[in-house]
User: What shape does this take?
Amino acid sequence: MSARRREVPASAASPRPNEGAPWRRARPPSRSARSPAGAGAGGGPGPGLGPAGPPRRRHGGPGEGTQDPLRAGPLRAGGDVDIPSRRVLITGATGLLGRAVFKEFNENNWNAVGCGYRRAQPRFEQINLLDSIAVHEIIDDFQPHVIVHCAAERRPDVVESQPDAASQLNVAASGNLAREAAGIGAFLIYISTDYVFDGTSPPYKETDVPNPLNLYGKTKLEGEKAVLENNEDAAVLRIPVLYGEVERLEESAVTVMFDKVQFSNKSANMDHWQQRFPTNVKDVATVCRQLAEKRMLDPSVKGTFHWSGNEQMTKYEMACAIADAFNLPSSHLRPITDCPVVGALRPRNAQLDCSKLEMLGIGQRTPFRAGIKESLWPFLVDKRWRQTVFH
Assistant: This one.
């Protein structure tokens, strides 16, 4: 049952704002389509490129030889800037977080282009983030004002088993993307993780010294350094465990528990040691957009930021909350309070202090029970219950 995919209503296929004919590069495909590029943050298997309106090209495009008003400094209220001309490039757009970020910008008058790899086409073009020429070409062609870098190998156990590939994507590709963004004056938002901390002294501010326990956290911290060394005007956004509208339950460490919750004929062990703060990808997407728009008004908006849900839960407590949200039994769920001994080390409690963004007026939080019900109801086995509650 774990391989079941999300049921999508027919209405979901209807076009969204700014989703006209997909934007395609005029040149033939680069060599990027011939080699893999890792996984998108939140479960997407790779970075690439997607639909948008006509880009403004550096060479021969509209505005050649003139100043781009969105790069000329802070915008003033009431200005005459053509708002839909705001362009954003999203890497890892086929992944759980990337899809939400693409949708958020696209539905809020941004000209959005997404990058993916294995699952990119037909909605997105394939771009290998390890191919520096391909990355340069797409940025040079599209000329984004903002780049949201969601693509990463974000599974700690996979990073431990494939360290070189993970480092290439999480560190080297991120540094190169930062250089390219700096070259055209684009604002880069690099998505990082709470796993840069060891979890011994929460809550953590942006100024606290990182001390990652596992290789995943180390590669993301190295990625942060590579980004800021190559682009001092970039932003790093650290976030915790994510959930949202998954295509497969395995896309999220939160939603993957649903089958164990539903099938109550068999007892299931659930971690009750690690303290987590499950965060809805829609909220992170909103924060990314708000951060980008704040930056367009204030060029001093840069550096490291934290965002997180504010409900502290172990996986056992999440599973019980999921059961409660769907009126399902939870007596078969067994809390395990011992520190896990299998797989990569995890921090006990890496709670993030989000006051820096909150003071900027940035943020959105979806209550966990509401968000998880919206995310998981398409995977509910008891169709009769679903028809009663949702229709």
